[in-house]
Specification:
The protein is α+β, with helices and mostly antiparallel strands and 372 residues long. The chain has three domains: 2-99 and 203-210, 3-Layer(aba) Sandwich (D-Maltodextrin-Binding Protein, domain 2), CATH 3.40.190.10; 102-201, Periplasmic binding protein-like II (D-Maltodextrin-Binding Protein, domain 2, 3-Layer(aba) Sandwich), CATH 3.40.190.10; 237-368, Alpha-Beta Plaits (2-Layer Sandwich), CATH 3.30.70.120. Helix content is 28%, strand content 28%. It is built from eleven helices and 18 strands. It has helices at residues 2-6, 23-32, 63-68, 79-85, 130-146, 185-189, 215-236, 249-255, 284-294, 304-311, 319-325, and strands at 12-17, 45-47, 53-58, 74-78, 91-96, 102-109, 124-127, 157-160, 176-181, 192-201, 203-208, 237-245, 263-266, 272-280, 297-303, 338-340, 347-351, 361-363. The strands form four sheets. It has a six-stranded mixed beta sheet. Strand 2 and strand 3 form a beta hairpin. Helix 7 (215-236) packs antiparallel against helix 10.
Length: 372
């Protein structure tokens, strides 16, 4: 342990939730950004093998304070945790990470007659989000008291408990609660309903606003930040490629404008062009339908997670990446899916024609591919 502590002096420190709803997703994100480490279950600190960096595993609620006070340089936690830490000016939210999505809501028993937030003024609220709740209900109390100047002022009582918040109303501890809701199943099972949403939340990458300790560390912060943003974008988009008649090009580009602009390349047939554009993954099926209706052909969707890995220099791709490319249970064939290089214009890998249990990848020159 003394050796580990001494090894942290010159390393970038990156705080990760040690367990809970964000932990597994964080591990996937780190793997996508090529942050290599091996964690002992007995230690909450581990060294990264391929960067001058260490990971620090902390409760998600503690990460904003560690980052804000400069104890660690980067962190991943929920936006709800950042709001609860109340460290404005000390923390910068770099980018949302598109996982851990939930809502912080005010909930009351379904059997109660309470249907609006105003009805909870002066009552008892139980929550794990004491700071946020006090802010919300102080504003509410001030508004309600202003409408009743001749009545005694009301003050809502906020009481903190660390867990099982949804049981508070059933046990007679509170008139309402403030708690996180993901699917709403736990809320409904506890006989509760939401009457007000305080905020929506998701996992977010944060950094300390204190100056980085040294230029090298700042460069590493920029590198890791850029990689994580790339992984998030890769999970959000797919690359759509298709051929279209020049007479329909303007209409096609309206469907696939790309992030900045689409790439249009000439074909041997002068009446046709090839188009490459990034489209939102969630809209990809509708995009394909619209392009096909417009007369586009040879429409391909390529998973950008794999393209990002190629940009980092990986040569082997695991089954998870293959799964991102296949629209069904069958592995893609050579004439269906081709993997692009990192600049998205030339091709570097292709799948074997025959599906195998352990798939392998082989290099190919662009000239050996069926289209170019």
């Amino acid at each position: 342990m003394a050796f580990l502590a001494g090894s942290l002096n010159d390393r970038l420190l990156f705080a990760i939730p040690k367990k809970g709803r964000l932990y597994e997703k964080c591990l996937d994100l780190l793997a996508g950004a090529d942050i290599q480490f091996s964690r002992s279950h007995r230690l909450d600190v581990c060294l990264v093998g391929n960067h001058q960096m260490a990971l620090v595993f902390l409760p998600a609620a503690d990460i904003p304070r560690f980052v804000g006070e400069g104890n660690v340089d980067l962190g991943i936690t929920g936006q709800d945790m950042v709001a609860e830490a109340d460290l404005d000016g000390l923390i910068e939210e770099i980018c949302p990470l598109d996982f851990g999505k939930c809502s912080l809501q005010v909930q009351v028993p379904i059997s109660s007659n309470i249907t609006s937030l105003d009805q909870l003024s002066g009552k008892k609220i139980v929550t794990s989000f004491e700071v946020v709740s006090n802010s919300v209900f102080k504003e509410l109390d001030d508004k309600v008291n202003a409408t009743r100047p001749d009545s005694p002022p009301q003050k809502t009582l906020i009481e903190y408990i660390g867990g099982s918040v949804e049981a508070a109303c059933a046990l007679g501890l509170a008139d309402g609660i403030v708690d996180l809701v993901e699917s709403g199943a736990t809320m409904r099972a506890a006989g509760l309903q939401a009457i007000h949403t305080i905020m929506t939340s998701q996992a977010v990458l944060i950094k300390s606003n204190r100056p980085a300790r040294g230029e090298v560390r700042q460069q590493l912060i920029n590198l890791i930040t850029s990689r994580i943003q790339g992984v998030v974008a890769a999970n959000r988009y797919v690359l759509c490629q298709y051929n279209i008649n020049r007479t329909r090009l303007t209409e096609a580009l309206a469907i696939t404008p790309g992030r900045r602009s689409a790439t249009v390349s000439p074909l041997d047939d002068s009446e046709w062009v090839a188009v490459s554009a990034m489209v939102f993954k969630k809209d990809s099926a509708d995009t394909m339908d619209k392009l096909q209706a417009l007369g586009a052909c040879d429409i391909f969707l390529l998973g950008l997670v794999g393209l990002f890995k190629a940009a980092l220099g990986f040569e082997d791709y695991d089954a998870d990446f293959i799964h991102l490319l296949r629209p069904s249970g069958k592995l893609p064939s050579l004439d269906t899916y081709i993997i692009c290089g990192h600049n998205l214009y030339w091709y570097t890998h292709f799948l074997e024609m025959q599906p195998r249990k352990n798939c392998k990848w082989h290099s190919a020159k662009p000239s050996s591919l069926p289209f170019h």
